């Protein structure tokens, strides 16, 4: 059932702190022009959030610039102490973080509590270790400088961690913009920076919509832009930064294949899909959103899958028994609805039978079978709880259909035949391939895409190096 006592803690925090200003140079500014952040589960307003002005973005960049030399000049083991402190404080406040994330985003409280927030803390612990390592192992690398970081709404705090932890570990300072739908956990993070005694200016948080993102991307005093979001905005940012000497990493959309061979452990492959496409309501860049099943088992597989879908519990994300919560915002819900309406004739539609709560942004778990690989719903990222499916005959046909996409973020393969898995994995055009499992993440493992899914890696060694440059390297124009 619901967890009213923890909801009260979050309501008290909001009452005490809203309306929110920006976190610049170690201080919260007075709120400016504000907009409402709403709870997608019931449409209620949670807080007023400031739309930062270009001058405020400039003040944040100036603060970050001023703090950077001294921050980078600290020995790695000293910087590490701050990251350890941040990690510990995030664990200490994990309940408040989890509830705020769920209220703001609509994701099930079980996911915020058991997946997002623990991963966030792990990310800071891992990069604290990396900061320590820097003294001995990376004497010839140095920080890039000031990093502008722009993140989406699907994993608000986790995307913050993926960006902030490696950046500050390596001696950079940051100006981060959360997505306009989901600013709350970033604002709580600002308080955690205070509590950890992080030197002022090392982390700055500016809220607002794409205009704030544009002010960041076009700012001359920023050395690197790290962006996660849509392919469309990624393209704009690539254009805006071209020829400026800024480093750039882009984590964009996906339409990842989930391939099931006829010798697979079918029950596990069905259960894996609960994670692959219904976790976070399918609003996951690497969601296994395209199901490819080998012909001989297709009927049996679909029958089992529909039975499993019928058991998914859809509803109030604050209820700790819920599997599928609310879509982040009415606009996003409309996008999903429109895409499915326009393409539903392309296959056979199955909506999981469930009673959707009134007033919230809910969409039923959906499966559309019998798709042609070229159909729009097989090609377009839906970014919702909608799985589209087709069948294949041979392994080479599976590879061909899997790679028939403009994206290349992730892929999943299910087979009991290790030789087949080893043969298929390298042929799939994807930044990561999971075998007999899905959505596996670790701070030590690089993550990122190819083709229109972007470029560069986050996490792991590659992700860490992307926040450094060789010592003495001139800014290349
Ligand atoms: P988006 O790309 O519009 O927004 C992502 C971030 O970029 C937000 O913080 C936004 O304010 C900012 N932004 C918007 N316009 C900008 C601009 N011109 N310059 C700089 N920053 C700008 O994505 P969204 O609206 O949050 O979601 C739309 C689609 O993006 C989704 O349907 C999905 O396809 C994709 N998406 C992908 C991921 C991912 O992890 N790869 C995550 C979220 C969304």
From TrEMBL:
<feature type="active site">
    <location>
        <position position="251"/>
    </location>
</feature>
<feature type="domain" description="Aldehyde dehydrogenase">
    <location>
        <begin position="33"/>
        <end position="471"/>
    </location>
</feature>
<protein>
    <submittedName>
        <fullName>Aldehyde dehydrogenase family protein</fullName>
    </submittedName>
</protein>
<comment type="similarity">
    <text>Belongs to the aldehyde dehydrogenase family.</text>
</comment>
<keyword id="KW-0560">Oxidoreductase</keyword>
């Amino acid at each position: 059932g619901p967890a009213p006592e923890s909801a009260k803690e979050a309501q008290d925090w909001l009452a005490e702190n809203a309306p929110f200003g920006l976190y610049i140079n170690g201080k919260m500014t007075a709120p400016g022009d504000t907009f409402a952040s709403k709870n997608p589960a019931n449409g209620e307003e949670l807080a007023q959030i400031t739309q930062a002005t270009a001058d405020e973005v400039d003040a944040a960049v100036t603060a970050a610039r001023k703090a950077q030399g001294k921050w980078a000049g600290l020995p790695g083991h000293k910087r590490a102490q701050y990251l350890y402190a941040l990690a510990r404080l995030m664990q200490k406040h994990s309940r408040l973080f989890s509830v705020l994330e769920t209220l703001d985003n609509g994701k099930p409280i079980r996911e915020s509590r058991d997946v997002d927030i623990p991963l966030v803390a792990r990310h800071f612990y891992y990069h604290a270790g990396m900061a320590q390592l820097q003294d001995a192992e990376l004497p010839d690398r140095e920080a890039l400088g000031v990093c502008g970081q722009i993140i989406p709404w699907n994993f608000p705090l986790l995307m913050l961690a993926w960006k902030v932890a490696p950046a500050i570990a390596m001696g950079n300072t940051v100006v981060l913009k959360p997505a306009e739908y989901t600013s709350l956990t970033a604002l709580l993070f600002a308080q955690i920076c205070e509590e950890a005694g992080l030197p002022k200016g090392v982390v700055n948080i500016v809220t607002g919509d794409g205009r704030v993102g544009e002010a960041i991307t076009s700012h001359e005093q920023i050395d690197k832009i790290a962006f996660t979001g849509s392919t469309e905005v990624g393209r704009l940012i690539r254009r805006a930064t071209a020829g400026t000497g800024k480093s750039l990493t882009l984590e964009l959309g996906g339409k990842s294949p989930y391939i099931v061979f006829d010798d697979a452990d079918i029950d596990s492959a069905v259960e894996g899909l609960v994670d692959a496409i219904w976790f976070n309501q399918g609003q996951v860049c690497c969601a296994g959103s395209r199901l490819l099943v080998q012909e001989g088992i297709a009927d049996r597989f679909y029958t089992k899958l529909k039975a499993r879908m019928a058991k998914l519990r859809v509803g109030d994300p604050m209820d700790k028994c819920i599997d599928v919560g609310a879509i982040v915002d009415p606009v996003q819900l409309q996008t999903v609805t429109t895409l499915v309406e326009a393409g539903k004739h392309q296959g056979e539609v199955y909506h999981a039978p469930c009673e959707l709560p009134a007033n919230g942004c809910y969409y039923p778990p959906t499966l559309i079978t019998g798709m042609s690989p070229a159909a729009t719903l097989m090609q377009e990222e839906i970014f919702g709880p909608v799985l589209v499916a087709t069948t294949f005959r041979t392994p080479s046909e599976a590879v061909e259909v899997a790679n028939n996409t403009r994206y290349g973020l992730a892929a999943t393969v299910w087979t009991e035949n290790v030789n087949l898995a080893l043969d298929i994995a390298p042929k799939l055009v994807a930044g990561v391939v999971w075998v007999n499992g899905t959505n596996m993440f670790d701070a030590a493992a690089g993550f990122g895409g190819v083709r229109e899914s972007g470029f560069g890696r986050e996490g792991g060694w590659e992700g860490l190096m992307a926040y450094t440059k060789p010592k003495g390297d001139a800014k290349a124009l």
